[in-house]
Specification:
Blueprint (H helix, E strand, L loop, with lengths): L16 H10 L5 E2 L39 H5 L2 H15 L3 E6 L4 H4 L4 E3 L1 H9 L6 E5 L2 H10 L5 E3 L8 H4 L3 H15 L11 E8 L4 H9 L3 E3 L4 H9 L2 E7 L2 H10 L9 E2 L10 H5 L3 E4 L11 H10 L4 E4 L5 H6 L2 E2 L2 H10 L5 E5 L2 H10 L4 E4 L3 E2 L10 H12 L11 H16 L15
Parallel strand pairs: 1-15, 2-3, 2-4, 4-5, 6-7, 6-8, 8-10, 9-10, 11-12, 11-13, 13-14
Helix pairs in contact: 3-17, 5-6, 9-18
Amino acid sequence: MPAVNITLQPRPIDPSVDHEIQAIVSGVSTGETCNTDLAAGPWDFDIRPGYGPGASMGDVIPTGSPRQGELPQEYRDASDEELDARIRAAKATLGERVVVLGHFYQREEVVQHADYVGDSFQLANAALEHPEAEAIVFCGVHFMAETADLLSTPSQAVILPNLAAGCSMADMADIDQVEECWEQLEDVYGDMDQADADGLVPVIPVTYMNSSAAIKGFVGRHGGIVCTSSNARTVLEWAFQRGRRVLFFPDQHLGRNTAKAMGVPLEQMPMWNPNKPLGGSSAAELADARVILWHGFCSVHRRFSVDQIDKARAEHPGVRVIVHPECPMAVVDAADESGSTDYIRRAIEGATEPTTFAIGTEVNLVQRLAADHPEHTIFCLDPVVCPCSTMYRIHPGYLAWVLEGLVDGEVLNRITVTSDVAEPARLALERMLAAKPPAAPAADWENAS
């Protein structure tokens, strides 16, 4: 599914999460946010270690994670209206020399300037459609910009407006930990390249798109593959055709939910905790494993609960509950459906009758869908406004800064992947591209028994 262009029209529901947070903090709204610091500009947190306020604020950030330098004062002081005008003027000046990509989870004030809106891989593919662009400004997080650099041409510069926009889940599996895990698995399984009588090697590594380029490179070197939330089942099927078992990282929930739906018993899905010998399992448990799950998670999707679903059903009889597969297994089991961000969008677009939707994913997307589809009632399962900490680090001030830098001939915040990592990482991505899932229209839910 390609990324989508969004034509913004006046909407009866305000799609801006920032406006809602400002109203809560000022006392105009009686709503609740997880951290009142979200009302401040993200530059207030650039000099501090950590992911910043929001869903990931409690996660431990690795030492040496990218930090953003000080944003010039003129961008910090500019009004919303001034930033909007400056961004539009810079884009008009640059024309086809630049393409701006906006992830579904970006704040509305950034998305309105994006040439394409989509999930991480849709946007990386959108960049491929514009080889004439000298620069790709990726309004997302660090691993997404790395993926765009892997797939774009060498002459194109990929820019991340705020270098502090990382991803706590991607950071939960670093290359040193994964290499150490592989060595310990070799001690259990023997030669990892030696196929058994059925032609299967001991382990095929599978990494979620939400991982660093270094991790993607590791997977490429060891016969593995990348997956997205929309093709995880197809990728696991590909892996099981080649390996006796799968090492799946960094998101345990996507791996567990996908493998469970394929019939893999939970007892054959041990967790690998990188801080424990053999990940905290015995050699016998690992020998019996089908899917070894890395101890990682998305802090946005971990906020959703079965209690929230029960409350939604009690207050809205007939509600259609859709959650992201990064949610915990109990939440996915309690929902009517689970699917990628693009699946959620298409499910709502495909509903032909007015419907009440309770959505378990990042609040910026939910708020935007509610504004775009006033024919439906759409709300976030989590009543507390708590956006992704790192997506929220991208602000119009940073977008204006990097675009005006390009106008002045300066490339700011360029993201590059070294050639030794890029080659095997591209191989893992190419394997994913070749493993296409069967088409399954989201509207099938309406006809399900």
